[in-house]
Amino acid sequence: MLTGCGGEQEADTQSTDIQSTDTQETTVQSNASETRKADASTGAKSREPASDEAPEVPPFDEPVTFELISRLESDRRLTVEGETNLPQATRLQVIVERELSGVRWRERVAVAEGRFVAGPFGPGSGLPDGGYRVTVDVQEGSVQPRSVQERLGEENEHLSGPLVQQSQHGLGKVARYRQRFLVGSETRRTHDQVEVLRVE
User: Fold this and answer.
1) Phi, psi angle pair for 4, to nearest 5°
2) What is the pLDDT of residues 143-163, one digit of tens each?
3) Tens digit of each residue's pLDDT (9 = 90 or more) over 79-113
4) How many CB atoms lie within 10 A of CB 79?
5) pLDDT of 185-198, one tens digit each?
6) More exposed terminus of the chain, fewer Cβ within 10 Å: N or C?
7) Side-chain half-sphere of 48: how many Cα atoms within 13 Å?
């Protein structure tokens, strides 16, 4: 009788162990299913396009334009003010040259809200009477800031219009605008299209 009772207890114990094993397998299967769902959700999110990408910058598609006002100050030195349609921060070089001697003064400036100012140009004693030429050069693309390169191109390839030409150094395009003027206390006769400047 004791042996029979012991056998029944062992059978009950084995049955309990089997049920416990089944419960563990069910839990493992449930966890694996949840893991697959989480992975699928993560994969779907990763395939969604990023919404914080920077918008594409359109290339510059207008002919380059300049308008200059050259002003002779009371000390007979020259200030050059200009307007242009070039992008913000475009780097320019402004040169004033005396035609008789070839002496030059130059300054590098940047476009700000479509405008730029350079000068005053000339020696401390002021500009002597005579003919002068103001030249404004758009500098090569390699020296332009990144924001300008995005509009004009890395070699200024998006520049266009009658002022545009190939760079002498073979580094893409540049643009150049020139204006002649005369400095003198009296208006002089001239057949050229030239501005006459008098001391203000």
Assistant:
1) -65, -40
2) 999 999 999 999 999 999 999
3) 999 999 999 999 999 999 999 999 999 999 999 99
4) 15
5) 544 444 445 566 65
6) N
7) 9
Q: Which residues pair with 135 in a beta bridge?
A: 95, 178
Which regions of the chain does DSSP assign to beta strands (E)?
66-72, 78-84, 91-98, 104-110, 115-121, 130-138, 164-166, 173-183, 195-197
- CB count in 10 Å sphere of residue 13: 10
Q: Which two tokens stand for residue 133?
A: 């030429």
Query: Contact 173/166 with Cβ under 8 angstroms?
Result: yes
Measure the CA–CA gap between 119 and 95, rounded to whole angstroms.
10
Q: Measuring CA to CA, how many Å separate 164 from each of 43, 62, 73, 105, 114?
A: 51, 12, 31, 23, 18
Task: Report how far apart, in Å, the C-alpha atoms of 98 and of each of 67, 122, 128 are.
Answer: 21, 10, 9
* Residue 61: both structure tokens together: 């598609």
Residue 79 pairs in a beta bridge with: 71
| Sign of torsion over alpha carbons 181, 136, 119, 128 | negative
Amino acid at 105: W
How far apart (Å, rounded) are the C-alpha atoms in residues 78 and 73?
A: 6
- Can you tell me the distance from the alpha carbon of 105 to that of 102, in angstroms, rounded to the nearest whole number? 10
Residues 6 or more apart whose Cβ sits within 8 Å of residue 111: 84, 86, 87, 88, 89, 90, 92
3-state DSSP call for residue 100?
A: coil
